[in-house]
Amino acid sequence: MPTHPIFQTAFAKVYPLYVQKAERKGRTRAEVDEIIRWLTGYDPAGLQRQIDLGHDFDTFFAMAPALHPNTALIKGVVCGVRVEEVQDPLMQRIRYLDKLVDELAKGKAMDKILRR
């Protein structure tokens, strides 16, 4: 069964796009990093290592220390798709990340983005 091309895309290629999207709306790289670390469980050094190694999304999420237990609280639409209804686990994790970055760019408070 063919996989989606995003699965083999290097996380390091998409990461700057997340940062640019946030910065265009007055948010910071540090906030993007905090969101990614919250979702994946990476520490700052681990996240930087993933970026430096150029791992694809599949590997990036496979090596993630632990998905946050509150990921089930992430709901909404990204690119016309409800994130809570995505069937493929990897695609759902990617959509979760997209949704969190979208919320950041839309000015949502970090406590709400991180489901505190």
What does this 3D model show about the protein?
With 116 residues, the protein is mainly α. The protein has one domain: uncharacterized protein sp1917 domain (Helicase, Ruva Protein, domain 3). The chain contains six helices and two strands, in the order H-H-H-H-E-E-H-H. It has helices spanning 11-24, 29-40, 44-53, 57-62, 89-105, 110-113, and strands spanning 77-78, 81-82. It has a two-stranded antiparallel ribbon with strand order 1-2. Helix 1 (11-24) runs parallel beside helix 5. Pfam families: DUF2200.
Which helices and strands appear, and what pairs or packs with what?
Layout (H helix, E strand, L loop, with lengths): L10 H14 L4 H12 L3 H10 L3 H6 L14 E2 L2 E2 L6 H17 L4 H4 L3
Antiparallel strand pairs: 1-2
Helix pairs in contact: 1-5, 2-5
- The total beta strand count reads 2
Helical coverage, percent range = 40-55%
Overall residue-averaged pLDDT value: 95
- Total number of domains: 1
How many helices? Answer: 6
Strand content: under 5%
Sheet/helix structural class: mainly alpha
**Strands of the largest sheet, in order across it?**
1-2
CATH superfamily: uncharacterized protein sp1917 domain
So what's the overall shape? Answer: globular
Query: What is the correct CATH architecture?
Result: Orthogonal Bundle
